[in-house]
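[Discussion] Sanity-checking designs against the backbone

I'm trying to build intuition for which residues belong where. Below is a structure token string of 248 positions. I'd appreciate it if someone posts a full sequence so I can compare it with mine line by line.
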């Protein structure tokens, strides 16, 4: 991977990894919510993509004025293993996001020095990350050389402002949890509902619950309130007037 480079960018400075990893593993998974539906059993509803994870292993050779390993990618800007361990440990300890860049490059200057600008950022890994795990090992007979495993988690900047309808409370176990504020006065928790719904052609309990509660899985609330007329939750008749209770 001689035409490959791995960088970390922090505080307007760029740090290139001196020894390229053999591979960088990228993982991403689909998040789903599972619901139990009357007469249908369990269903899965996709919600979002989980944050990407990047993992790789590399070597940080020890620094020596007399000897610089021939296989390092940064001969003109070589730092010893302690420099990198201190740097990445500090970022992890202080929970600091850092930009992770990895990809193939073109040495436009033909000087064997690779700058971040020589990588097409649209075709490479280019993401803010948190250093989730650092695994550091030192092998017998190679004192001073450090073998480091990185596990990075994609970081997306966000606002820490709390929504107006959310409060934080401490439960009996001492854990702080977020709760929705209770509706005051004659405000309804469901502004879409006047208390009833007239069934239209093609509608299902799932669709009606989705309309009024924002979640089709709460169809059992409507079913339980209308058992006197709904005998089969999968069969609704056009024109039925269904009670729509407020969400508890």
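Best answer:
Here's mine. Compare freely.
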């Amino acid at each position: 991977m001689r035409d490959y480079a791995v960088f970390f960018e922090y505080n307007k400075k760029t740090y290139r990894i001196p020894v390229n990893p053999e591979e960088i593993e990228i993982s991403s998974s689909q998040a789903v919510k599972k619901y139990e539906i009357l007469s249908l059993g369990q269903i899965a509803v996709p919600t979002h993509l989980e944050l990407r994870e990047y993992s790789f292993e590399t070597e940080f050779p020890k620094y020596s004025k007399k000897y610089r390993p021939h296989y390092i990618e940064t001969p003109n800007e070589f730092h010893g293993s302690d420099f990198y361990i201190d740097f990445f440990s500090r970022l992890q300890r202080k929970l600091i996001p850092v930009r992770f860049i990895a990809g193939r490059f073109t040495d436009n200057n033909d000087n064997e020095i690779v700058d971040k600008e020589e990588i097409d950022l649209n075709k490479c890994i280019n993401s803010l990350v948190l250093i989730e795990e650092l695994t550091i090992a030192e092998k017998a007979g190679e004192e001073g050389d450090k073998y480091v495993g990185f596990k990075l988690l994609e970081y997306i900047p966000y606002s820490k402002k709390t929504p107006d309808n959310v409060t934080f409370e401490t439960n009996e176990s001492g854990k702080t949890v977020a709760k929705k504020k209770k509706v005051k006065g004659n405000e309804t928790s469901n502004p879409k509902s006047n208390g009833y719904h007239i069934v239209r052609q093609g509608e299902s309990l799932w669709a009606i619950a989705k309309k009024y509660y924002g979640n089709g899985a709460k169809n059992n609330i409507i079913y339980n309130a209308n058992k006197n007329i709904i005998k089969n939750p999968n069969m609704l008749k056009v024109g039925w007037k269904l009670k729509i209770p407020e969400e508890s």
